[in-house]
């Protein structure tokens, strides 16, 4: 789903009725922001805590990049309207949860996780882990393909050749289709990374090396030296460059 951070909130291009317990904000380029009120934040916290989910952690973007750097051929897929694909009933069955009357604080009236809700990222990742990651990991291991997912951004890579990876992408697509999720074909990329760089999660990868994108470097150059933003960007830049240091 097309989104970006705006004041720490999740921005969605999908225009919906404002869910109860949320404020409707207008972000850049006409996007809509759903900001939870304090009661909704408390409800989300209690539901996560009662189900022992408040401390669940998932791989960060660097964990999702590192395994691919030694590979040559890349297939990048983006899930279309990913949060919208997670329905209340499916989430309850798949994750063994029961939302009851509180469901309206987690799901839109016509289905789909609420973008901007505190628990949505955790619920989405847990849901995808069961319905998508497990079958994809099994398939990719058999096919000698490296697979990682960061929310709705999927990356596959191999040492084979472009045609070999493309042929096996049919099996990948079948698994995604069976899960009920959809691919945003406009963002699909298949490249030989020895010759063509690829951008993934804000990092430019090319021939086994990673570096910040030009857009990020421009943002860093505009930040006020010594500011909190500057130090945050500088730390992120160091982590990107550290990906090039061999383990051990």
What does this structure look like?
β3 and β4 form a beta hairpin. The N terminus is likely disordered. The chain contains seven helices and eleven strands. The longest helix is centred in the middle third of the chain and has 23 residues. By secondary structure, the protein is of the alpha+beta class. The chain folds into two domains: 202 residues, Alpha-Beta Plaits, CATH 3.30.70; 35 residues. The two termini are 37 Å apart. The radius of gyration is 19 Å and the shape is globular. α4 packs across α5. The protein has a four-stranded antiparallel β-sheet. Strands 6-7-5-8 form a four-stranded antiparallel β-sheet. A three-stranded antiparallel β-sheet has the order 9-10-11. One of its GO terms (molecular function) is RNA-directed DNA polymerase activity. This is Retron-type reverse transcriptase. Pfam families: RVT_1. It comes from Candidatus Giovannonibacteria bacterium GW2011_GWA1_44_25.
Protein traits:
single chain; 248 residues; alpha+beta; Alpha-Beta Plaits; 4-stranded antiparallel sheet; globular
What's the helix and strand layout?
Elements: E1 3-6, E2 9-12, E3 22-26, E4 32-36, H1 38-50, H2 61-65, E5 73-78, H3 88-95, H4 120-142, E6 146-150, E7 153-158, H5 162-179, E8 189-192, E9 198-200, E10 203-206, E11 209-212, H6 214-222, H7 228-242
Antiparallel strand pairs: 1-2, 2-4, 3-4, 5-7, 5-8, 6-7, 9-10, 10-11
Helix pairs in contact: 4-5
InterPro entries: DNA/RNA_pol_sf (IPR043502), Rev_trsase/Diguanyl_cyclase (IPR043128), RT_dom (IPR000477)
GO molecular function: RNA-directed DNA polymerase activity
Pfam families: RVT_1
């Amino acid at each position: 789903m097309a989104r970006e951070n705006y004041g720490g909130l999740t921005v969605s291009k999908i225009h919906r009725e404002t869910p109860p317990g949320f404020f409707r904000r207008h972000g850049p380029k006409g996007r809509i922001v759903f900001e939870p009120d304090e009661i909704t934040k408390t409800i989300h916290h209690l539901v996560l805590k009662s189900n022992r989910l408040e401390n669940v952690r998932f791989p960060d973007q660097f964990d999702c990049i590192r395994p691919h750097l030694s590979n040559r051929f890349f297939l990048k897929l983006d899930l279309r309207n990913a949060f919208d694909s997670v329905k209340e009933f499916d989430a309850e069955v798949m994750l063994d949860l029961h939302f009851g009357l509180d469901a309206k604080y987690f799901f839109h009236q016509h289905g789909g996780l609420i973008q901007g809700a505190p628990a949505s990222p955790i619920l989405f990742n847990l849901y995808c882990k069961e319905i998508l990651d497990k079958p994809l990991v099994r398939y990719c291991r058999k096919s000698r393909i490296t697979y990682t997912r960061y929310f709705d951004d999927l990356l596959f890579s191999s040492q084979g050749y472009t045609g070999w990876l493309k042929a096996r992408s049919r099996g990948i697509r079948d698994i995604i289709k069976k899960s009920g999720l959809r691919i945003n074909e406009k963002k699909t990329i298949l490249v030989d990374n020895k010759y063509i760089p690829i951008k993934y999660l804000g990092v430019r990868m090319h021939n086994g090396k990673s570096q910040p994108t030009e857009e990020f470097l421009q943002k860093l150059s505009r930040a006020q030296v010594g500011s909190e933003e500057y130090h945050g960007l500088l730390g992120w830049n160091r982590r990107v460059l550290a990906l090039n240091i061999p383990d051990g």
